[in-house]
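in:
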């Protein structure tokens, strides 16, 4: 009887092949690897910057934050030209058709060139690099909802968030709540959620006709239908690590959460119940690299790491450098205007007072002959040191996350 069953299985496989139906590795019990490369919270930072040992970027090294991050050395890091080199190297070393490139939001603004072009410069770089999907962050509406839609069309890839509702249609914004990719027979759903308090972090005029719902409320509605369409569920989240942990605790059917908003570096996957979590810091200083191990269309393991984009390790991609030069050319004199020189590091913090806050506060008090100055959330950006240009100062003077 056992021999008869085996013969029937073999006959079934041969019949399927003869009829033209491709038998994928996931269907015959072999392990396949799908790579997801990811970034988050770029905030328009497309150029490399100089690190310091104690403080360098965004919220990372603030001693008051839960996840303290410091750089191991001084040096130049990040930028789209180094990012392009890293992405191309990984695509070339692995099966390019099995590699996805995603972003978890807060991408276009908070940089002078980004603002001068209302995000077009950054989305053009992302298009060149081959991004496939972006979860909308709270700063991705800094130029208004209509401009965000224009940027999506320029980029040629979907932007979305299942919990951001367009009141005019009653559907999720741009009707792109998720993306389903089929790779060697396995259907991978990438579901996007944005920050539910986005309307409290920017101009209300930029968010007319938009409703921002809590991600977990929407997940209860959308996950059941998505599970019928896909084998593996990836949540591309701009909710922040604390909320992502709550999501992982509540929704065990989510296989992987790729996070953003809180600027954390979670390289070794954090696992809660059945759900893995990762995040790739901020400011295009790191590229997240995830390998999904799949067998029989089910996730059996996750390997993850991050690549710090030190220019000493990654030669800047000439093609991307050329594109950046073209985008900067009309604005170069304005961008590179010299403003001042910092004789010491003017560092940035987020939850605690930093040198930058003291500097700005004292300037305001002096200018307006005031005793007290209040700062509306300028607690993150790139630390200033040495020669300061207009674009350096602008990137340092960013708003809250």
């Amino acid at each position: 009887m056992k021999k008869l069953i085996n013969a029937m299985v073999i006959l079934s496989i041969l019949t399927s092949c003869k009829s033209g139906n491709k038998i994928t590795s996931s269907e015959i019990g072999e392990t396949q690897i799908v790579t997801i490369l990811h970034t988050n919270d770029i905030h328009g930072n497309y150029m490399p910057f100089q690190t310091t040992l104690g403080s360098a970027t965004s919220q990372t090294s603030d001693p008051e934050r839960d996840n303290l991050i410091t750089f191991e050395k001084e040096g130049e890091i990040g930028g789209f030209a180094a990012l392009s080199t890293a992405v191309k190297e990984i695509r070339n070393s692995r099966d390019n058709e099995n590699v996805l490139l995603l972003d978890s939001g807060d991408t276009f603004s908070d940089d002078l060139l980004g603002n001068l072009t209302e995000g077009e410069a950054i989305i053009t770089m992302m298009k060149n690099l081959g991004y496939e999907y972006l979860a909308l962050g709270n700063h991705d509406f800094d130029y208004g909802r209509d401009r965000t839609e224009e940027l999506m069309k320029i980029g040629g890839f979907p932007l979305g968030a299942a919990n951001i509702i367009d009141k005019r249609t009653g559907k999720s914004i741009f009707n792109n709540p998720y993306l389903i990719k089929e790779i060697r027979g396995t259907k991978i759903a990438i579901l996007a959620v944005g920050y539910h308090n986005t309307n409290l972090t920017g101009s209300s005029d930029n968010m007319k006709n938009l409703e921002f719902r809590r991600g977990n409320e929407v997940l209860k509605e959308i996950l059941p239908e998505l599970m019928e369409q896909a084998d593996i569920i990836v949540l591309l989240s701009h909710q922040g690590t604390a909320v992502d942990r709550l999501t992982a605790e509540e929704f065990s059917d989510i296989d992987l959460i790729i996070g953003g908003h809180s600027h954390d570096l979670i390289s070794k996957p954090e696992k809660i119940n059945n759900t893995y979590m990762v995040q790739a810091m901020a400011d295009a200083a790191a590229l997240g690299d995830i390998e999904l191990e799949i067998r029989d269309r089910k996730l059996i393991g996750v390997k993850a790491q991050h690549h710090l984009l030190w220019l000493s390790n990654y030669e800047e991609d000439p093609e991307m450098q050329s594109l950046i030069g073209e985008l900067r050319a009309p604005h170069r004199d304005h961008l590179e205007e010299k403003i001042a020189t910092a004789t010491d590091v003017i560092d940035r913090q987020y939850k605690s007072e930093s040198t930058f806050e003291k500097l700005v506060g004292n300037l305001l008090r002096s200018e307006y002959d005031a005793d007290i100055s209040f700062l509306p959330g300028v607690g993150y950006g790139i630390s200033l040191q040495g020669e300061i240009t207009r674009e350096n100062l602008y990137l340092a003077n960013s708003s809250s996350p």
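note: The radius of gyration is 23 Å.
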